[in-house]
Amino acid sequence: MKNLLVTALLLWTSTSMAQTLHFRQLSVKDGLPHNSVNALGEDSEGLLWVATSSGMCYTDGEQFFPISVDNLPDKRVDRINRDSKGTMWVQCYEHHQQVSRFDTLTHTFVTYNAEDLPDSVRQEAIRPLNRKFTDPYSPRVWDVEKRMLWQSDTLRPDTKFFYSGQIAIDAGLKDETIFSLLLDSRGILWVGTGNNGLFFADTRQSRYIRLVCQGNPLARAVCKDAEGTLWFATSYQGPNTLPLGEKEYSPVSYPLTDSIEGLRIRPLILDSKKRLWMGTFDGLYMKPADSDTFEKISFMDTLTHAIYALFEDEKHQLWIGAERGLYMADLNGRHPQPLLADGTLSHIIDINISKDERWIATNGGLFKLTESGNEQWCDIEAHSVVTDALGQTWVGTDYGICLAADHRLQPFPSPADGHIVKDLLLWRDFLWCSYDQGICCINIYTGKATHLRTEYNEYIESASYIDPQSGHVYFGGTQGIDCFSLDSLDSQLRTSPRHLWLDEVTIELSPKESADSASSLWIYICILLAVVIAVSTFLVLRHRQKPSEVSEQEAEEAPLSSFELQAAAIVKAHMADADFTADQMAREMAMSRSKLFTLMKQHTGKAVMEFVRDIRLDYAAERLKAGTTVADIAEACGFSDASSFRRSFVRKFGVTPSQYR
User: Fold this and answer.
1) Which residues pair with 515 in a beta bridge?
2) Whole-angstrom Cα distance, residue 336 to residue 299?
């Protein structure tokens, strides 16, 4: 028996470790300078450096920012290294006798002859290109051999394979010609290809585990039993079968009436006695722990009755939300018999019962059950209701997520705003929300909301389930079930300032300030008017004396959009290029000329070259303060001659460069 268990464990290990990664692609459409990626590196701040055949850039996980290569021997960089002090070193194609250091103060490269550097510095600055990385959390190894990506297992050498053919297609790796490889500190494997840009995959988790069913894979319910078998219900197109089964998709049947609606399963839960309960449009069914079949529980006058919600409370009582009424059954008995608890409620969609509160979500609104009666907190349809460790009650509605407070629902800003919230789940410090177009996770302590894109499901249904033992959360939708690994996301959701490109979008939220009391309102208004008058007078006088400084201060205070930041970075990278044009900027921002002009007008109110000229003039003003000559500044800022520079400077600041200094 022991040998059999060991053999089974080894087979499971080899199978799991041999699983391919799932890659996502980044190309020039996303802001990459060129689709041929020659070298990759990671700096001390966790930023990814990318060297392509047409320049360099870095990414913070949300967008690409150019790195100037004007001071390099060649724009084709093929090696990137970081020394023990965090300094970034690069070497260029056919110039390996030289090495260039990135100066963080000037944001330029300083080039040295490799022989002139001390041995200790040279050993760290010049290292062979790393083409092999080992996962510190598993036996998996990735390396590049003969321009192909190979994956192996230190425990099972026979599992080595390379990403080619159908394996590469299934993994999302659209290019088999590999130039560079990097496993970063977050466990993201980056693959630079010869013609199709940059690919990345998360190696620390199986973020997406897709469960596919034949026919129509619309998942309506999901649950795991005491033996670890995953049960799920999907909607078939035919009226005579119901796909309900384990992860191997073996079908399970239960007694059906002639009603076609009996096919529709809504809630599916496991109680404390290891019994599986299933609510359908045909009624309530229960499968005992020692049985393989479902029994229909008859407790209503009518033969058929739709069941929408099931919930077991701390007293081991099963609450049943039906189309007409709220029922309760004592699970301590062998054959629980549901009894009517409230006949005034109808179309009960979700139930949340705790020691202190009883919440009922219906299509007619949210209700709180009290000793004196039912309190209605809203009249809009409520799809889900949960209470977290802080005592906050979260409600999913047709318009997003709300908090129940002060006898009403208060909208909570999140990526689900304006969408139909299907279900809410709680796990540790996080609230998981599935809505019609995605999934988001909210830290209940910080209010940070993170949006997660499912890999396959474009539309999420009400089917969701958290398995605290395995640390997985399941979401069902139009294309089956997506599974997220919670443990691997835990640290990222708590602390990480960056998120995977096109995979997560973070929204920082802050609580609203309370209003001032009416008694002191006039005092504050008078003080505010006095301050405004004083500040206005000061600014007018300052503007007359030093208009340039005022303009700079106002420019610094204006918030910049991501579009403006990217455009400004490109201009700074071409600061001294007098031939720089709007067409070149459009190419580097991966958009058409017309779109660039439209976005520039929307974000800045300026024309493209007017925006370029203003950035150059602001840079010129800083150089004037440092004492640089006017002629040198004009050349460094990309002006054709000193006279045109002076005219532009006077037009912007109202004084000549000499007067400004």
Assistant:
1) none
2) 10
User: What's the CA gap between 91 and 108, in Å, rounded?
Assistant: 14
| Buried-exposed string 58-76: b where 16+ CB fall within 10 A, e elsewhere | bbebeebbbbbbeebbebb
- What lies within 8 Å, CB to CB, of 22 at 6+ separation is 171, 172, 201, 207, 208, 455
User: CA–CA separation, 50 vs 41, rounded Å?
Assistant: 7
> How many residues does the structure list for the chain?
661
Cβ atoms of 67 and 57 closer than 8 Å: yes
CA distance 531 to 535: 6
- pLDDT, tens digit, 9 for 90 and up, residues 245-286: 544 456 666 555 544 444 577 888 888 888 888 888 878 888
Q: How do beta strands 339-346 and 348-353 pair? A: unpaired
Largest CA distance in the chain: 96
Retrieve residue 134's tokens.
């080992």
| Statement: the pTM of the whole predicted model exceeds 0.85 | no
Q: What are phi and psi of 404, to 5 degrees?
A: -85, 115
Kindly give, in sequence order, each residue whose CB lies less than 8 Å from that of residue 304, ignoring residues fewer than 6 positions away.
257, 259, 261, 262, 281, 282, 283
| Cα–Cα distance measured from residue 47 to residue 97, given in angstroms and rounded to the nearest whole number | 27
CB–CB of 416/395 below 8 Å?
Answer: no
What contacts 248, CB < 8 A, 6 or more positions away?
A: none
To 10 degrees, the CA torsion angle through 188, 192, 195, 197?
A: 40
If we measure between CA atoms, which residue out of 394, 419, 502, 413 comes closest to residue 455?
502
Average pLDDT, the chain: 75
Do residues 401 and 414 touch, judged by C-beta distance below 8 A? yes
Measuring CA to CA, which residue among 373, 372, 416 is closest to residue 394? 416
* Tens-digit pLDDT profile for residues 191-201: 999 888 999 88
Low-confidence ranges of the chain (pLDDT < 50): 1-18, 206-208, 237-244, 246-248, 258-262, 303, 494-521, 545-558
| Residue tagged 């099972």 (tokens) | 156
Q: In whole angstroms, give the CA distance from residue 320 to residue 142.
A: 52
Residues 6+ apart with CB under 8 A from 435: 396, 400, 416, 419, 420, 421, 422, 460
Distance CA 364, CA 400 (A): 16
Tokens of 387: 């209470």
**Helix 562-573 and helix 593-604: axis angle, to 10°?**
120
The one-letter amino acid code at 73 reads P
Q: How far is Cα 96 from Cα 78, in angstroms, rounded to an integer?
A: 9
